[in-house]
Design a protein that fits this description.
twelve-stranded mixed sheet, five-stranded antiparallel sheet, 22 strands
Length: about 600
């Protein structure tokens, strides 16, 4: 066997036609080459995944091609290449009375039964703000292709070494020992890339909290359009203060070794998460955030027996979701989940607060405070972000309340109560300590000079909107000619299904718009001033295609199907308006009879 430190004038056939970045664990002052003793071809040891120590142990090297005909390489006398891996002992775990076995999680997962998920799978172009306004954001959403998401992600062949170079080799990184689910101190990106791209993996380690927004790597990434439109930080946090402070949680790079596992958790502050798999695959285990499940979770994370108890055993329903490279998923507020990594993977993700489950976000924040979650693991500037949201929604309620969905209106009620409670804590006659009052004041933005006044205005405006009500259609309809049947939807008004082409169904959702007195006055004013838009139609409706399982189909309704269903709905709207007029006339007649 021939071995040199530099291959002068040679070209490695394994990487000659490829753009090559040598892994960091081979980036020394020189690079090791090795020559096949049979075909005399030189190759980079790094391309063969051979560390220099392994090269030293070989007496006669056979390249992969020659191995097929002449057998494996011959090792030096007295040195035996073991055919099985020796078990490694994690002594830190032994000292703490633990068995440091990272593979225990796989055995546990294989022994459990999880339900098959029924979460929506949608196309990127379908996932819009209007879609969220109709369907809400209560369950995970899976997008199998990046098409239509209007995002920009790293290329699918990116390596951890490239990421380390882009974010900076000296960048600190939190590394988790999978066997104990504890952090290992004193790691940077150089050391992490050396481990991840190298051949020596004495432990199964995981990185899930590398925030990259302010790096050149992060600046080359664009989050999905729907995330940018939903994100409170993106839309409400003042731009001029982002150079000073802001919740830097919008963009993470997750790098996981095969068999990595993250135990059950809720993302901080009840944030929603977008999750895009660049390389490898992931398996999620979801538990719905019902009130009873959240109580169990709160007790579990506070229990000294947490490490001895698999959380999914404590609940009734848990669901399995598998993602592969190219898949994207949106995880809504409060969903309790664990994550297993079947293959080495690189993922781009990010956290965001949004207005479609404000109550859930506040509930998770309360759990974190009651269970004394360290500040490091909470959403940064959570209360300050809520004040900005209160200011934002106060303006929306004043200028354009019709643009808000029922999900948002209900959430604003909870937000107003939360801010009222905060504002009431720094007045006289309350039980808050001086330190607590000062902390609350520090989290009130400078732009809000009178927080008490803001909370009262927000409460008054949302109460006025809610008191006007939202009219949902509840009548049952069965049209034999069109094979139409009616279904009620708790939050999105009325849904009708029209079986028009085999197993494909057309669903039409109709919701009555809220119209307030201010808007009526604005409409009258437009007669003399065209700068204000005319009054919108009192009805909103959207048409979606569904499959036989009542899940949104990838097949769009045909123009003929849409025309057909629109005609039906127009007839129903006329019927509802006629009934409404009849009820009004009957009321007026009764009133005159009383007089």
């Amino acid at each position: 066997m021939s071995q040199v430190s530099e291959g002068q004038g040679e070209h490695c056939p394994l990487c000659a036609n490829k753009q090559r970045l040598v892994p960091l664990w081979f980036q020394e002052s020189t690079e090791t080459w090795i020559k096949c003793d049979l075909c005399q071809v030189w190759c980079h040891a790094s391309c063969l995944k051979l560390p220099s120590e392994e090269c030293d142990r070989i007496d006669e090297y056979h390249c992969p091609e020659c191995t097929k005909s002449y057998g494996p390489s011959i090792y030096k006398v007295g040195i035996r290449k073991s055919q099985r891996e020796h078990s490694k002992v994690n002594y830190a775990d032994l000292e703490n009375g633990l068995t440091g076995n990272p593979y225990k999680w796989k055995r546990v997962l294989d022994s459990k039964l999880f339900q098959k998920h029924k979460f929506r799978k949608v196309r990127g172009e379908q996932l819009t703000i209007d879609w969220i306004r109709w369907f809400g954001l209560e369950e995970p959403i899976i997008i199998e292709s990046s098409d239509g998401l209007d995002m920009k992600m790293p290329h699918k062949d990116i390596t951890v070494s490239e990421i380390a170079e882009a974010v900076g080799y000296d960048t600190p990184v939190d590394v988790i020992d999978v066997s104990t689910q504890q952090e290992i101190p004193d790691w940077n990106m150089y050391k992490w890339a050396t481990y991840f791209d190298g051949p020596k993996r004495d432990q199964v380690l995981n990185v899930i909290s590398l925030e990259v927004s302010d790096t050149s790597f992060g600046k080359s990434i664009v989050r999905p359009r729907i995330v940018r439109e939903l994100d409170w930080v993106e839309n409400m946090w003042p731009l001029h203060t982002k150079n000073i402070e802001y919740p830097k949680v919008q963009l993470y790079c997750l790098m996981s070794i095969k068999d990595s596992f993250t135990d059950f958790h809720i993302d901080f502050g009840g944030t929603s998460v977008f999750y895009h798999v660049i390389k490898g695959s992931k398996v999620f285990y979801f538990v719905p955030p019902t009130p009873s499940n959240l109580k169990r979770y709160s007790r579990w994370i506070s229990s000294p027996e947490q490490s001895m108890t698999f959380f999914a055993d404590l609940v009734k329903d848990s669901y399995e979701v598998k993602l592969v490279a190219g898949n994207t998923m949106i995880i809504p507020t409060g969903w309790i989940h664990a994550v297993y990594t079947p293959d080495d993977s690189i993922v781009i993700g990010g956290n965001f607060l949004q207005g479609f489950n404000i109550r859930g976000q506040l509930a998770v924040y309360d759990i974190e405070k009651r269970t004394n979650v360290p500040i490091k693991y909470r959403f940064p500037y959570f209360e300050k972000m809520c004040w900005y949201a209160g200011k934002y929604y106060n303006e929306i309620l004043k200028e354009d309340p019709l643009s808000l969905s029922q999900w948002e209106l209900k959430g604003i009620v909870d937000l107003a109560l939360f801010l009222l409670d905060l504002a009431g804590r720094f007045g006289s006659g309350n039980e808050s300590t001086t330190e607590e009052q000062q902390l609350i004041k520090d989290n009130i933005p400078e732009e809000i000079s009178d927080p008490t006044r803001l909370t009262k205005r927000l409460s008054r405006r949302i109460n006025r909107i809610i008191s006007q009500g939202n009219v949902d259609f509840e009548e049952e309809l069965e049209d034999k000619n069109h094979n139409l049947k009616s279904r009620s939807d708790n939050n999105s008004g009325k849904a009708w299904e029209n079986s028009v082409s085999g197993s494909t169904k057309i669903k039409l959702r109709v919701k009555r718009r809220i119209v307030d007195e201010d808007h009526e006055r604005r409409v009258k004013w437009t007669k003399t001033n065209n700068s204000v838009p005319p009054r919108p139609s009192p009805y909103n409706y959207s048409i979606y295609s569904y499959d036989e399982n009542d899940r949104e189909s990838s097949t769009s309704p045909t123009p003929e199907e849409i025309v057909r269903v629109e005609q039906i709905i127009k007839e129903k709207i006329r019927e509802f308006e006629k009934e409404k007029l009849q009820k009004l006339e009957e009321t007026e007649k009764f009133h005159w009879e009383e007089i």
